[in-house]
Design goal:
The chain has 192 residues and is α/β, with parallel strands linked by helices. It is built from five helices and nine strands, in the order βββββααββαβαβα. α4 crosses α5. The structure holds adenosine-5'-diphosphate (ADP).
Length: 192
């Protein structure tokens, strides 16, 4: 199995190394983002930053109560923006909390707001010197964003955003999200 900084990646999925201003490598990883040994993980938070369900709940549970105490000092976060905290008990040193848009049919600026989550998270990663960053599929859970559309926004935005981040892990918690990322990356699994 290929390893990327201690993170086992799916051996069937090649890294999509593309020239361009974005990170050198975008990789699809299956599993739980809270276990990844990367410099920073991104949280799909809600505007209060005071915890919730889904990946947000998992991150707070794994990081410990210090995370909530720290988040209480931040004054919330706008949709499309991102704020940084330490990772506390997580293997990741930092958590970048971003707030994705709630899907309302696609005609309410959802794509631009979701793109802003990815762009702003990379900007925060640059501010803290993170070189490896793992993203969950922001907005595609409780917020209802169709995973295929969200994956296209994620890949397009990450590829076109100038950054010093070297490796981005796209974390798929389920099969549909993994397939959506592979399709957006232009990778196809078929008989070889
Ligand atoms: P949102 O409110 O932005 O939709 P959710 O947490 O409900 O956020 O879902 C975002 C994505 O995170 C979904 O694809 C969900 O399956 C996934 N997810 C949930 N738990 C985890 C986890 N521990 N690690 C990685 N992804 C997760």
């Amino acid at each position: 199995m290929r390893h990327t900084g201690g993170v086992p990646t799916d051996p069937d999925v090649p890294a999509a190394d593309v020239p361009g201003p974005g990170p050198a490598a975008l990789e699809v990883v299956r599993g739980d983002i809270t276990r990844l040994e990367v410099d920073a993980i991104v949280n799909a938070a809600n505007p209060s930053l005071l915890g919730g369900g889904g990946v947000d709940g998992a991150i707070h549970r794994a990081a410990g109560p210090e995370l909530l105490a720290h988040c209480r000092t931040l004054g919330g976060c706008e949709v499309g923006d991102a704020k940084v905290t330490p990772g506390f008990r997580l293997p990741a040193r930092w958590v970048i909390h971003t707030v994705g848009p709630v899907w309302r049919g696609g005609g309410h600026g959802e794509a631009e707001l979701l793109a802003s989550c990815y762009r702003t998270s990379l900007a925060r990663a640059d501010e803290i010197g993170a070189r490896s960053v793992a993203f969950p599929a922001i907005s595609t859970g409780v917020y209802g964003y169709p995973p295929e559309d969200a994956a296209r926004v994620a890949v397009t935005t990450l590829r076109s955003t100038p950054t010093a981040v070297e490796r981005v892990l796209l974390v798929a918690f389920d099969d549909r999200t993994g397939a959506a990322y592979r399709s957006a990356l232009g990778e196809h699994r078929g008989p070889r």
